[in-house]
Amino acid sequence: LVLLLIPSDLHGLAKLGGKAVLMMLFATTGIAVGAITSFAIFNTLMPDSMPEDMWKAVAALSGSWIGGGINLASVVETVGTPPEYLGPLIIVDTVLAYTWLGILISLSTYQVAIDRHHGADVRVVQEISQRLQAEQEAHARRPRALDIALMIGVAFLVGQVCLKLGTPVYNFFDETLGWKAISDVMSGYGWGIILMTAVALGLSLTRLRHLDYCGASSIGYIGLFLILTGFGARANLRAILDIPVFFGLGALWILIHIAFLYMGIRILKVPLLIGAASSMANIGGTASAPVVAAAYNQSMAPVGLLMAVMGSVIGTPVALLVIATACRAIAGQ
User: What is the pTM of this model?
Assistant: First the structure.
């Protein structure tokens, strides 16, 4: 998590423009509202089909659908999503997310006509993309032994300190303030993850951000892939046959997200590229958002990455503090 967030270009996010940031928030709001609404509908109309602790599965999937796998891992560990739910989650995530990715890419054929129809301005996006590409090409270098030692040392130090501090923060909300609605969903580990996110973003404003010129995020991805492989090893993919409600809930969830996405594009008059990238920055994360952005314009991959970074930053807090808390209350647990 630390190595994936330290390279964050917060200045680039700021320069991306208020409309682009608002578009990203429209997409994220669509995921949050979709999660809570679809869970409430299925919990009301089909209570017998909803397994126990289904809210934990919804929370975990919402972590994946706001920023990608890194947030999925954090939420699964924080709320204690049962291992038997991981198989259905992986199937629903893969089938629905990548079906939607294919639709977004196919829409790139019509982007000029759509952008012209609602008067979108694409100049700012192009300027940011060119700057990011030039910066990476100018500073990229091979990692040295000192670089690798610094990457791993910073990651372990920040990670362990924040995880240790997570327990006192949890106790503060639980015992001092008595906020049970938060403390019942969160844990010391969850607060540690949120602290880690904040510290890593703070470090991205220092020279440590330059570690990505020699591959900090690549090492971070290795760690992420190991975590996700561990989840996959525990998953029972045949469980989807026992819990078919996952697909129905997930499909309704995606449709609500698409409705919010459409409203955002129409109201803010942003390019279709920004709308598509913001959607996939939520549902797909850093691996998929640049691909979708590049499908609209090959030079726009960095813009998709910027928006995916935003999703990675807000994904865990939103999934835990908003979606998990609301769904747990709806379930009456």
Answer: 0.71
